[in-house]
Amino acid sequence: MSKGLILNIVSNLVFFISGYLIHYYLGGHTSAAAYGVVGTIITVLDFEYMFTSNGARQSLSRNISSGRYNVVDVIVKTLAVQACIVAVFFAINFLGAPLFGRLFNDTSLDLYFKLAAFLPISNGLYVMMLGINDGLQRFQYSAFLSTFYPIIKLGVIPLIMFVFPHDPVMGVEVGYFSAMVIAILLGAALLVPVWCSLKVTGTERVSFRETAHGVLSFSFFFIMASLVLSADTLVVKSVVEPASMAGYYTGAMNFGKTTYYLLQAFAVIILPVVSGLIAKGDVREAGRKAQTLVLVAFGFIFPMAVVISATSRDLLAAFYKPEFTIAAPALSCLALSSFFMGMTVVFNMVLNAEKDTRFSDVLSIVSLVLVVPIFVVSARFGGITAIAAASTICTFVTMTVSYVEVRRRMMDVMTVKTWAVIGINAVVWVVLTLVGRVVSTDNFLLLALAYALVYFAYIGVLFLLRIVSVEQLKAMKG
Q1: What CA–CA distance (Å, rounded) separates 78 from 71?
Q2: How confident is residue 409, by pLDDT bands cut at 50, 70 and 90?
Q3: Do residues 338 and 46 lie in contact, with contact meaning Cβ atoms separated by under 8 Å?
Q4: What does pTM read for this prediction?
Q5: What distance in Å separates the CA atoms of residue 353 and residue 62, rounded to the nearest whole number?
Q6: Where are the domains of the chain?
Q7: Is the preceding peptide bond at 120 cis, omega within 30 degrees of 0?
Q8: Is 199 helix (H, G, I), strand (E, B) or coil?
Q9: What keywords were assigned to this record (predicted)?
């Protein structure tokens, strides 16, 4: 488990580092308004990726890891459901392109959305490769694919520089599509050695109805997560003036989502591990694994959100331009909001390991109904800072109710040590906020060095206080 977690964290690190490099280039070589257009396209794609990615991937992972079903049968039926979902998004993007242009007050978006219609197709196949490997607990292969894809996605930069210098959005779309096609071909090749053995796995066949329910339930939940994390960017583009504010908010969101991407590694691991243990009747061990993963998430990922939140002004000025500091209060909120949503996902993966998705379904419905109106009202009356604050409140509520449900229905995954970690991080946030009022820098290398020193000092404190120990981390291998 520990090896798979580390590899998936590394793959997610590579994913958002490559994203940072792309955003760094776009933010530095385009106007704030043009960058806002790129941010709008990417945000819509992220929203659709959540639906076409996580539903099939998590459903495959859970059904295969349970050991009940024939793996090939699970794959074929999941692929059929995935094809239906992808077809819907293709139609929405291609046929609805003119509507998107009017909705976001930019007619140039028409062509871009028609081209974007092909990206969910490639993404839908790519995540099938990841889900199969997750379900077989071949985490090293899914992590390799997840690392390989963002590296070749960096081809977006030379594409924009040399092929689409006057149309960066086109360069982004062509680069993303090409990277996914290459990753799909590699993923298919990696499955060739095990394909024959999959045919002789469990004899029970999963029903198409159960497959569709599993895919759609996970998809519905992740679409809620995506909506909470992404709808604010679209609302800003639609209702906040001037247009440059969308670019500044995109810059803040770029860093704000850091911890959410990292926590996806925990969600990928916790579902098949806990589901497999529950299927074997070892509920106690499933609870122990969940507690350990939650402690590690708060211990090692939460401080990243805290540091970004406390130093948002320096980070935006150093990475982009001083003018981006207008979004510093928004970033302070978004850094915490993304972590809260990431933990919401982790808690719900623990719940869904039992194949009972009712709570997640209800949470998704309520969130989908309430979030967008809250964001629109916040943006109209308080601009980008108010909408970021609203996002933080919404994600904190979803995280809290999810934790309460896990505790009520299964186990208390928050140990005394986990609460101690939260207290230490609160102190770190206060100290860094006070220091930031006295000392500041717009040199990104110096800021990165300061981040590293603070992070390693913090980790040292965790080990010194024995909140985290080497023995405890070694125990995760079991």
Answers
A1: 10
A2: confident
A3: no
A4: 0.73
A5: 7
A6: 1-206, 220-477
A7: no
A8: coil
A9: Cell membrane, Membrane, Transmembrane, Transmembrane helix
Integer Cα distance of 75 and 26 in angstroms: 38
What are 204's strand-pairing partners? 69
- 170 vs 208: CA distance, rounded Å: 38
CA distances in angstroms from 307 to 94, 108, 210, 451, listed in the order given: 41, 38, 43, 7
Round to whole Å and give the CA distance between 332 and 267: 24
Q: Which residue has the tokens 């889900």?
A: 131
CA–CA gap between residue 165 and residue 341 (Å, rounded): 36
Distance (Å, whole) CA 429 – CA 311: 9
Residue 257: both structure tokens together:
């989502």
Helix boundaries (H) for 199-243 = 208-239
Using the 8-state DSSP alphabet, how is residue 241 labeled?
S
Predicted local distance difference test score (pLDDT) of residue 199: 65
Summarised one tens digit per residue, pLDDT across range 257-313 is 888 878 877 776 776 677 666 667 777 777 788 888 889 889 999 999 999 999 999
DSSP, residue by residue, 117-134: TTHHHHHHHHHHHHHHHH
**Residue 263: predicted pLDDT:** 85
Q: Burial level of 123, CB count in 10 A (0-12/13-18/19+)?
A: buried
Task: Find residue 69's DSSP bridge partners.
Answer: 204
Distance CA 439, CA 57 (A): 45
- Dihedral of the alpha carbons of 379, 337, 22, 147, in degrees to the nearest 10: -150
* pLDDT tens string 61-99: 777 877 777 888 888 888 888 888 888 888 888 888 888
Residue identified by tokens 């495959």 is: 60
